[in-house]
Design brief:
Elements (H helix, E strand, L loop, with lengths): L7 H22 L5 H12 L1 H13 L5 H12 L10 H20 L1 H17 L2
Length: 127
């Protein structure tokens, strides 16, 4: 499947799954095994607010290429009206983040994993 043929929401759909799986693997690697604890810890990395902060840090630190930033924007701009429990800007940014991860997953999984590792590092700074 070619990433450039997919719209931003479709990229976010696959990116959400891959990012969530990566976070779950990371948390298990820390030795956390109780499902309730895993869920509570995962939210720190996967909530819309967390993803919004992560993507803004990645952009502000100049971590992303121009192409990667464009795929973030593709997802952000296609995200729709948002949800009741999250600010619209955070929702749009988190959708853009997931689209970026989806794009990288389909195009260059090694780079996707690098960005996810950076994302974990950024989220851990927020503790």
């Amino acid at each position: 499947m070619e990433a450039h043929l997919l719209n931003g929401v479709a990229l976010a759909y696959i990116g959400d799954v891959y990012y969530e799986l990566s976070i779950r693997k990371y948390l298990l690697s820390l030795g956390i095994t109780k499902v309730n604890s895993l869920h509570k810890k995962a939210i720190h990395y996967t909530s819309g607010v967390a993803q919004s902060k992560i993507i803004m840090t990645l952009i502000n630190e100049g971590t992303l290429t121009e192409e990667e930033t464009n795929y973030f924007k593709k997802g952000r701009n296609a995200s729709g009206p948002g949800r009741k429990n999250i600010d619209m800007e955070d929702y749009q940014r988190s959708t853009g983040f997931e689209a970026l991860i989806g794009y990288l997953y389909l195009k260059d999984i090694k780079r996707a994993d690098e960005v996810i590792e950076l994302s974990i590092s950024i989220a851990n700074r927020e503790v």
